[in-house]
Each structure stands twice: as structure tokens, then as C-alpha cells.
Amino acid sequence: QVQLVQSGAEVKKPGSSVKVSCKASGGTFSSYTISWVRQAPGQGLEWMGRIIPILGIANYAQKFQGRVTITADKSTSTAYMELSSLRSEDTAVYYCARDPTQSRDGYIDYWGQGTLVTVSS
Amino acid sequence: SYVLTQPPSVSVAPGKTARITCGGNNIGSKSVHWYQQKPGQAPVLVIYYDSDRPSGIPERFSGSNSGNTATLTISRVEAGDEADYYCQVWDSSSDHSVVFGGGTKLTVL
Q: How confident is the model at residue B94 (pLDDT cuts 50, 70, 90)?
């Protein structure tokens, strides 16, 4: 059974950065992709980017280009999402999620439990 | 960038059929995936590749996709189906990104 376990809630000041981790168990970490999706309070789902761990290649939504970095450590089956220059609008639950394909029409079959990031002065 | 349009809300009586639409330009040429999200929980995949159902998802959930509209159909709706539903595609035209619809709140009357 695949599990994605994320790091705990964070409270950050505007202008700072946050790094959220996502440890995978079950399945073969390198054979799938990990996406990061966020959800602001009362809002919909917003895709931020993804990484193919076996290649170490990430691609990002245009909206977050230059502000988000997604990495993966194959030795620990852990993915990371770092978001910089935080502002209040970045307050959201951040999910890591697994796409079992490496294609560009894939879907998400497992989600982490979510990490609440609160940006407040 | 590619835009997916969902109705904000759909209401249905128990035992009836709910249809949730997802509109997009020539969406029929894309693969559409659907997620169910209940309050305080992570989303759950209910339909992938337009009409495939993951194991554990009831046969009451089905999907179709043609032209400019994809549809998630829930037959014999139950109270437990009340949730937000999101459609998702890949936008390969620009930055190769995942796109979600705005979500539809399904209310069981």
C-alpha cells in the first residue's frame, strides 16, 4: 500500500521560505512522478509542479516559476517542495501526490495528508 | 493556458442521478480525470482516463468525454457522495502543466 507522509504544519513570515517534505513508502519511488498541489482556504485545487525522481527533472506551473523548487532524494524516497518569497496569499494546504505514470496525461492515485502553511506577520 | 469550467454546484435527491460537467476547448481530445474531496480530507481519484474506475470506487461512478464537455455521472446517489468534485487534464499546449477545474459542490438533498 502506497503512503505519502508529509511534514507538519508551518507558520511563516511574509518574505520567508518554506520547505515541505513528503516521504513515500510502498511502490517504487523512482518509477512514478510526484506532484505538488495546493488548496487555499475554501478554494479549489492548484497544481504547482512535479518531479520525476528517476530523472531528477522537475517542471513547474508558470505561475510559480522562479519561486518554487521541487526536488527528490531517491535514497530516502522523499520529495521536497520549497516555496520562497512567501505572501499571505500562499496560505494554503499543500499536498504531495503520486502520478503512477510518467506521461503527460497522467492522473493522481495517492495523496499525502496535506501540510498547512500559514503566512502571517 | 487551458481553462476547465465546472458548475459551482449541483443538487440531487438521494437515489437519483447526478451529472457534473467539465467544459474545455476540444476536451474530447484530452484524457480527463475526476477527484472527489470531502471536507478536511485529501482528494480521492474516482475516474481516470475519461471513464476508468479505480478499484474500490463503486460502479455508480462513471465518466464520459466528447467534444467540449466531459461528464462525471453518479447513479443512485447516496448521502455519502456529498462532496466537492474536480476534473483534471494536462495542458500540453504551453508549459505542460496539470490543470484542475474550479470544482463542483455536490449537494444531496
A: low
Mean pLDDT of A90-105: 92
- Residue-wise pLDDT for A25-55, tens only, equals 987 877 899 999 999 999 999 999 999 998 8
Q: Does A114 touch chain B (CB under 8 A)?
A: yes
Locate cell 495546493: which residue?
Answer: A38
Among candidates A60, A62, A107 on the partner chain, residue whose Cβ is nearest the Cβ of B45: A107
The C-alpha of A20 sits at a distance from chain B's nearest C-alpha, in angstroms, of 16
Q: Do B99 and A106 touch (CB under 8 A)?
A: no
